[in-house]
Amino acid sequence: MGRVNQASLEDIPGTGHKYHLTFEVKESIQNGSSLNCTAEILYHHGETPVAPEVHYAMEGEFETHSKEADSIFYNRIQHLSEPLETKNIPDNDGNMTEEMKPIFNLAKVASGYIVWQNSTENTWYNMIQIQNVKQMKRNDDYLEFSYEVLFHDIASQEIIPWHMQVVWHPQHGVKVAENSRQSK
């Protein structure tokens, strides 16, 4: 997310708070262009946690050059002699090899679902590290990874371990098959 151009809060009695936002969104993987976005986010109040309702509109579409990169990554992983298994991406100094960037980017995209499903007005989650990742064997064309990741809740400064099982195919996108917050 880039610069916020406009923001307002609407209190909806008996329901929650609705935020109205206008902001820039920057394409992060290719360090590319930015687009304007408008969004309404409704955080429900109540005893049972509910994912925020998000409605948004983008002014245009990002130019993507990812189809070729996705295909290269997919073919590389499909043809490994042993399933991928690694840890600490990025390392504790913030370094990451080029070949691990797609593994990190896949986790980052999948973590967006977890952030959305578990956000409240008082959280600000950001996936900061893959503690470990293991490729799971499958009998179809999809890739599956078991991730243990760390989220930083910027609001509370808490570091939260999380497990997520991610299924991906370049033509069908990312799906978080299961996820759970882990004990520290």
Walk me through this protein's architecture.
17% of the residues lie in helices and 47% in strands. It starts with a strand and ends with a strand. It contains 2 helices and 9 strands. A hairpin with an 8-residue loop joins strand 3 (34-44) and strand 4 (53-58). The longest helix is centred in the middle third of the chain and has 18 residues, at 101-118. The chain is an alpha+beta fold and 184 residues long. The strands form 2 sheets. The protein has a 5-stranded antiparallel β-sheet with strand order 5-6-7-8-9. The chain has helices spanning 66-78, 101-118; strands spanning 4-12, 16-26, 34-44, 53-58, 85-89, 125-136, 143-153, 158-169, 173-181. The model has no long low-confidence stretch (mean pLDDT 92).
Outline the secondary-structure elements.
Layout: E1 4-12, E2 16-26, E3 34-44, E4 53-58, H1 66-78, E5 85-89, H2 101-118, E6 125-136, E7 143-153, E8 158-169, E9 173-181
Antiparallel strand pairs: 1-2, 2-3, 3-4, 5-6, 6-7, 7-8, 8-9
Helix and strand string, N-terminal first? EEEEHEHEEEE
What percentage of the residues does DSSP assign to strands (E)? Answer: over 45%
Per DSSP, the total helix count is 2
Detail the poorly predicted runs: none
**C-alpha geometry:** globular
Main sheet overview = 5 strands, antiparallel
Mean pLDDT: 92
Radius of gyration: 18 Å
Task: Give a count of the beta strands, DSSP E runs of length 2 or more.
Answer: 9
Report helical residue fraction: 10-25%
- What gap, in angstroms, lies between the N and C termini? 29 Å
Strand order of the largest sheet: 5-6-7-8-9
Structural class: alpha+beta
